[in-house]
Batch of 2 targets.
Target 1
Amino acid sequence: MITVAIAKGALLKDSVARFKAAGLDFSAVLDPDNRQLMIPSVCGRGRALLVRNADVPVYVTYGQAQLGVVGLDVLKEKQLPVAQLVDLGFGGCSMAVAVKEDSGYLRASDLPPHCRVASKFTHCARGFFDSIDLPVELVHLTGSVELGPITGIAEAIVDLVATGRTLRENGLVAIEEIFQSSARLIGHPLSLRLDRGELQSIVDLMRASEIDIAYPS
Amino acid sequence: MALQPPSGLTELNPQQVAKNYRITKHLADVYRLWGYSEVSPPRVDRLDTLMAGGAIPSTDIIKLVSDDPIGLRPEMTASIARAACTRLSEIPRPLRLWASGTIFESRQAAEGGHLIEEKLVSGVELLGSKGITAELELLSMLFEALKTVKLNKYHKPRLLIGHTGLMDLLLSKVEPSIKDNVRKYLIEYDRLSIEDIDESDEIKAELIQVMECRGETSKVLNTLKSIYGDQEVIDDLMRLFTQMIPLARGQDIDLQLDPTFQPHFELYTGLVFQLVCRGAASPVVIARGGRYDNLVYKSGEKKDQAAGVGFSFSIDEIRELMSEELESEPVEDIYLIAYGKTSNLEKALDFQRKLHNEGKIALVELEECNTEDEARFRLKARRCNRLEWLK
């Protein structure tokens, strides 16, 4: 039995579509009335664990799920030993440093040393500011990070930016991109090493479906 | 909150300790049959020994506060290799040693901070033999020892085999400046990072092909031959597998050659392997080992004689994996000696001595019982299964 971990929320619909293209149909999770967290595939070969975004790599790390779909942002933040197999292309966004529009800061390196930076992604933020040799105090927030500069709790934020609309509507502007993120197919390394072709065929089909989407016939 | 052990450490209950004892005893019986002598390396050792000549990072070792740089052993091979090259250096080679005891692993906890894990291991070391014959003896003994664990078909045991020489071969075509990174990506099975390295498409495709290469060992070796040509390491592995395949088949163990498999500690310079079983929810590694000639050399042995191979079983993993099977093993009779008003404790102790002399497990009910029925009622509470009622 193949177990896959899929994230609730923005990545769910595309994740289900890509697994379906690889022969594992978990469409039942898209039913608004569904309350089940473990759903068998239509073919009976697999089952899906419906979990929170940040928990996908945790289930894969411990081997409870052999495969999973999660954003690169979560992988970079959690730093868990999972195998990155396919860039699935959807769920595109960027991890960026943003400040108040009228702050006058044009680049991250313009920020004053030891200023406060609010973020849900403190590991990514720490890595970035270390890379530009700028010491900052990180303030961990779990959501509505845009409020940081507005309330004055922080000079800047590090957050995911998709369309930029939330930033604009809150008077913020992105001044530096840290990395581009998209959904990744990940795997449990030991399960992949022990695989006799079953997992690999799913990985290959999911990679092929990415090409089909990019170059439709 | 009541007093608790440090985070990560577990206190075993008597049943778990009894199972550990049974598993280690059965394994030790096999080691002795093969002529191995028991040694007892220290749990606390000097950091320069524990770091195994740089193979084990200092961050993986739990240090102790002391004037000397010392720590708790994260594995036992380094201390045994040191002993073999110093106190035991006069003993003719090959030197066959076994040891069992706890090791201490240090890792980052999910919520931050460090976890210390204490694990029971039991394993062997064969020192002073450079040829493939040492690997053959080691793996044959691993299979024999495995019989005592009594795995069944559900567990689907599989021996995952790699070789540091194969990894060197894979990296031979890669630009030297990125070799360390590529090695890391291959070990982590990180295909996306391999696709991103600054190398030709041909080299990237080869690396991915080898990383994903699965199936019969002969097929994997032929794939490697087709890419890298005739190589000594491939010929050695072919010879090893020719001998090992029938042995493994006899015990329903799958052999799988995985060119990019390397263990966490960079202790090994040659064959590396781990024995993986199907667990209730995820694969479980129950044994690991390999060749560590460099470690023996760094421990003080002459270059031409520096050779060592070994493996160790993870007893805690086996206990959890085989929990049900171990429960069903026949239990020994345990006697409860109880007495009523017409007898006394002294007579009970005399009777206990008699049973002990017969090699039976017996304990005395210290409280006087009013009736035999009452004594029988206490049997279960005292975890005994036989009653001796002194009238």
Target 2
Amino acid sequence: MAHAVEPEYTTTGLNHRKLLMWVFLGSDCLFFGALIATYMVYRGQSLTGPYPIDIINVPVTTISTFVLLMSSFAMVQALAATHADNKRAIVGWLVATAVLGSIFIGFQIVEFNTFKNEGLTLGGNLFGATFFTLTGFHGAHVTLGIIWLVAMAIVANKGRVGPNSALDIELLGLYWHFVDIVWIVIFTLLYLIAGFDAGPAAVPGG
Amino acid sequence: MAAITGVISRPTSYAGVWSWITTVDHKRIAVLYGATALVFLMIAGVEAGVIRMQLSSADNDLIGAGRFNQMFTMHATVMIFMVIMPLSVSFFNFVIPLAIGARDVAFPRLNALSYWIFLFGAILMHMAFLVDQVPDAGWFSYANLTEKPFSVNRGLDYWSISLLVLGSSSVAGALNFVVTIINMRAPGMSMMRMPVFVWMTLITSLLLVLAFPVITVGLIELTMDRNFGTHFFIPAEGGDPILWQHLFWVFGHPEVYILILPAMGIVSEVLPTFSGKPLFGYPFIVFSGIVIGIMGWAVWSHHMFTVGLGPVANSVFTITTMLIGVPTGIKIFNWIGTMWKGAVEFTSPMLFALGFVSLFIIGGLSGVSHAVSPSDFQQQDTYYIVAHLHYVLFGGSIFGAFAGIYYWYPKLTGRMLSETLGKLNFWLMFIGMNLTFFPMHFLGLNGMPRRIYTYSAEFGWENMNQLASLGYIVLFLSFVVFFVNIWQTRNARRVSHDPWDAPGLEWSIASPPPAYNFAEIPQVEGLDQYWIDKQKARDAGTPLTEPEALVDPDSIHMPSPSYWPIFVAVGVALIGGGLLSHYAISFVGGAITMMGVIGWGNEPATAPSDHH
Amino acid sequence: MGPPPLWRKGSLPMQSTSNSNRPSGRRSILKNRTVLFGLIAALFLFATGCSKEGMSTWEAFGPVAQKQLDLFNVLLWVMVATFFLVEGVLLYAVIRYRKRPGQPRPPQIHGNTTLEVVLTIIPTILVLALGIWSVFALFEIDKPPDDGPEPMHVNVTAHQWWFEFEYPDAGNGKRIITANDLKIPVDRPITLSLFSDDVIHSFWVPKLAGKLDMVPTHENKMWFQADSDKIDDDLPVTLFGQCAELCGLAHALMRFRVTVMEQTDFDSWAAAYGPPPTNTNKAKQGAQIFAANCTLCHTIDGPDDPALSASRLTGFLTGGDITPVPAPNLTDLRTRNTLAAGIVDLNETTLRQWLHNPEDVKPGNYMSERAVLYQNGSADLTDEEIDALIGYLLDLR
């Protein structure tokens, strides 16, 4: 993965893999867009509870959101360390990103369990179906990212990551930041806005 | 993973079956896609034959309703996802690097992966026949017919999971071509100097990467409804079946442009070659393609005019749909303009291209009548729609593909398809197509709904149905002629590298092209660069008679063969297959995929032994 | 792909067409003949292709269908004219500009911006004009005119695979539920609310109006009217309808009829709506057989009770072999002209075939699948019992 090659000629000057990642992220936007659209279409349409206001815990999720934001910060630091060719810092910041991401996932797992115990299930009502599907796929994206981070940290630990291979870290960073931004959108819509929905009658336009 | 790469060494050969399995050469991958697509063309064609035989007379009992529903579902699903799309990708694979002066696509192993996932996904879909649980809810599978208790067997699960697998193949391939076209053009080839086929491929690929995620979500939600207790489309807990339609058609409408734009691109290459003059109105053709790609996102509900969205929504989509006819018309006018004052030669590729234009005019016109929603209320779900869709997909996409096959065959193989058989192929197909599908306009307007396995004689539909079934026989013969034509080329004489005196860069190199395509990456000065080169040489008094001199292939770095693509594809297929049988298989598939991705990541694109 | 092949030097064609690699283009005559044949065939098709049989859209018996047909007729001429114009130019181009032997390279024209702009603007104006006109038409046919006669309302519910018609007020406040044969008075707007109990179906009577889907959880509204001045024959007249959205196995066999009659005849029918009389022994016997075998799913004593309908629907959706299913109300079966959802005329013979074994008449139907009476295939009834049942249902004397 990290042998030095001279940069190949590209028409735009952008590396192929970076362009690929951007287009892929564009595609992934539509994926999350369709899941979010499903959630919004079914907002206030659940025939039975529990409803968001019974379940959503904004303070707790604010903490996990902050953790995920901090992981993006760690990711930025990892890239900076790569440019600075500081192996310990590279490994450290990659591990930090992975750890913070894992804490976020940990929060999600605990959260989902709590919701389940409070009666929110996939099949119970539309809120359960749309909520768990959307956040579940987001969590899957985060998990894949964590695996990638760990793999990268191992490679870095062997000394095979440096300024010549900064692109690899940058690609990982693009993906990680994307996943973070998607979470910001989800958090804003599902928690800050729709989190206070109290059943069919109370939703504007519902 | 070093252990695995150590135990099984990287493939090195370029001959034999193993070389095809590990190939990352875009030209070979094109052959793989094309051959596979033609096999599925035969399968879907047989399904069409069963349909036509059943409908050839009133109150027929050749097959029952259940089998009939399976036939039209599979016929459409296979034709769209396993014939037209892979045929298009086959052309993308073969032509794009050659047309832009590149040595391969941006990600050769990803390219191979796309093919293997496609093959396994198509096989997975057809395993439904083995367990006799074949999808039978139509190719757009409207909820909630697709939900339990209305579709109890696993047919719809085979459909959904296989489409998810096929979709990932399409997206992977499309990502590759977007990067290739944007980033690997020969020096001097600005966007407005790209051949139209390259433009159409770019737009199609962008549509693919943006549209497939939407149906992916729909399929996931359907699968969850059927297997995990959710109610996305089930009325019982407040779900709305119409949501499926929106998700499907937001994908589905860009999908039909995905199906037609490549064929339009091919025709835009063939017509100038056999008119002896450049494409008329190049910027307008390019621009209209872009406009179609963008506006295609704004028309989806014209598939839902009769769903009850209300007059306001229907009005909006009526207007947008009417407007999208304009860029298509521009293309047609420009194609005619290309031949105007030209020197038209009726070679086989040209005949198919002309067939495309003439048949697409009919399909486009009937499409305009669908756009007018009040009239569509009578036309929707009748054979009038079946007529329209076959004129644009068969008369359009298939004729375009055949034009491409006849056109680029000599470049791929160094041999020409027989002109005599080619003309026979064309006329049988043209006549057969019109015989089969033109009567369907009347059938629809005479009130025959679609997807009915039988009908009563009292409605006067029998004669037109018989005509259509007769047309099928003519079509069947045309495909026999085609396959005979392919078969007989194995002994046909060789032709030169540029038998058509064509304008594209691909014609400047040997037929078949060497593995590295271009000995020297060409410098591009304008559109139709090869015509420019040839004209310059003629003006200088030294006409070009040979392609550029060949060089020692070892002096050019090419990506090396790899087994990781098929390895990962097996993993992905097992994930899908496991969801249809035992979840344990999916876990194994996941592990294989993961191992494959890591091994792939550790493998350099070009083996050190291939470096010099 | 192996070592490069040999090629013949000088085989690249230049200006001449005598090179053997280049196929020549001498097909124009054949194209002409074929084109002529094609045109004749197309004209023949046009002449014979448009029929006015039962499901045809070419004949409109009411204002909604008429407006849709008017729009389509204009579109048709626009399409035909455009077809001849564009295909004509195409044909002319390939014939007039076909390559002649020895022809030099033609002028390398790249385009004509003025032409492009004109050919963009004209179609845009045309499509916008048609589009805007159709939007006006869309709103015009959306609701019945305010100044017409008082509409009569019908609730239509689709089931796999038959149509249920409920008249909340068929006259004098009388509620009627019937199936598969929609009786309507002539010259009066009929507003319809479309529902579905199971999957998506579509309600389509081509001679009265375009179709509208019947979607579970939705109420879709439409209207139509049968005009006496558009109908040539004497009333009552039967119009044909069919489900137009794939809805399962028997989709092809889910049809219905609309009987258009004078308001007075309609009122008579509505007033007489009630269970078949049981004033003969045979009828009494038939009524008993019916009560013993059919009432789990069929109502015959008037309109269905909503709670009963709901419970049958729940049974159907939750499954099981022998459970109630929503089944056609048979109260006025004797006044209908069709059986098994519009697929056969109703008479003694067809009813006997149906009762004996519904699967023979309508493969896939739920009666054969769910009714205890048919658990062994054909009905567990003697011929005499079936006779009695028929006599009762059809009020035969």
